[in-house]
Amino acid sequence: MRGTNIWIFILYGLLFDMVNNLWRPFSVRFLERLGGGEFEIALLSALPGAVAAIVLLPGTIIFRKFTNKKRATAAFILISRAALLLIAFVPMLPAEIRPLLFVVFVAIMNCPDALSQTSMQSLLGTIFDGTMRGQAIALRQKFGQAVIPVITISAGLAITFIPNTDEHRMILYQIFFIAAFLLGVVEVLIFNRLKMPEVTQDLSNEKLATNLRNLKEIISDKSFRTFYVPAIFFLFTWQGGWPLVNILMVINRGATELDLAIVALVSGITAFFSGSLWQWLLRKRGNTATFVAAGSMLSINMFIFPFVPNMQVMYAVSIITGFSAVGINTALLNGALESTPDKNRMMYLAFYNTAQNISLFAAPFFAHMLFSLSGIYNAMFIIGGLRIISTSFVWYKMRKKLPV
Known about the structure:
Layout: H1 2-21, H2 27-33, H3 38-63, H4 69-88, H5 98-127, H6 130-161, H7 166-191, H8 203-209, H9 214-220, H10 222-252, H11 257-304, H12 311-339, H13 345-398
Helix pairs in contact: 1-6, 1-7, 3-5, 3-10, 3-13, 4-5, 4-7, 5-13, 6-7, 6-11, 6-12, 10-11, 10-12, 10-13, 11-12, 11-13
């Protein structure tokens, strides 16, 4: 069953990546074509986090009342994918409301998506044991990074060379959103093939877990706090760099859809070939070493980007991004599952993901403030310095499991 589940999980992950990479790598460029500027770009990074932070904990409490968690998860995935159909109609609306409406629809889509991904993380703790779980996550990341570049570069080439006019280009974007929805339906069908082990549930514990007073227990859990406090600090500095990089590439360097696709291609190929290395480091040295190694490289990036003169050089710099991003994502997910107990795991993960989304909401606005006050280059240097500090904090607190 485990072997079968691993490959079903990988296939589900591939479809998840295909759905998202048909449009997300070009979302900033699409937003600019709709008439959006620097503020809308920052809002595109921030608003989904705010919405998810509001709904995640109460939504999880309601979610836990479902007797069939897998079926409920599949339903939320499908609802999230249905939002892509709404986005497909945005270019047909009045020009003055298009940018903000696109941002709002992406934020709304993040509500069911956040719930389904939190549930998926919890299910991983049930489906796989500790050793098998780490391998499943690493393999899912590795194969996903092989598919992402193919999807992204194909979409980028299509948007660049097929349309003759901007109007035709918008029609192609609409086709991509509809295609992403159809792939999402297949994603749900594959997800439903995961085999769940028999679990005897203690209904009294389930009822207790739905009480918000359990948040005090979660927050005061020293083992969990040792992980999530430094992790969220780092995430804030990582997320703060995203809108700055997007502004630099799209507005300052004039990146086209093809440029963005090539950046994703280079990052994805690098991530694919680095997957085995991160898996080895995770197995041999553990989460802290993996986290710190990847975090250090992401810190260096912010000091390199300001000196990149054009998109051609950015292609090469993307090697560092692809190499380090897969290490961070693997370490974060595995670290979250390691630090949460079997009992009430979904509530723990909901709290952690809520904290992530609060950070996702605040970090882009913080970055936009730095951008407004000091310019794009100084803002990147400041974020890079904060990434170094946060990575050092992770190493200091987690190397000996020091309580926070």
